[in-house]
Amino acid sequence: MPPLDLTALTDEVARNESVDASASALLTTLFNAVEAAKNDPAAIQAIVDRVRSSNDALAAAVVANTSTPPV
């Protein structure tokens, strides 16, 4: 039996760790921005608007790039 090739598993673990680190950095940045703006309702609304816009763009990209499974 040939040796087990763990390259694919190792690559996926690294990819997952990268995504996790990116999400953590994003949330830290978001929390810091909200904390800095906590006494400024207009600044808080601007943050909300930016996050909403980003979420909408991400959702549209997912829909546009996801194939519909055959029925």
Structure description:
By secondary structure, the protein is an all-alpha fold. Helix content is 76%, strand content 0%. The protein is flat, with a radius of gyration of 19 Å. The mean pLDDT is 89.
Short description:
This protein is an all-alpha fold and 71 residues long. 76% of the residues lie in helices and 0% in strands. It is built from 2 helices and no strands.
Instruction: Outline the biggest β-sheet.
Output: none
Q: Give the N-to-C terminal Cα separation.
A: 40 Å
| Rg over C-alpha atoms, rounded to the nearest angstrom | 19 Å
Number of helices: 2
Strand content: under 5%
On the 0-100 scale, what is the average pLDDT? 89
Unreliable spans: none
Principal-axes geometry comes out as flat
Question: Mind sketching the topology for me?
Answer:
Layout: H1 7-36, H2 41-64
Descriptors for this entry?
71 residues, mainly alpha, 2 helices, 76% helix
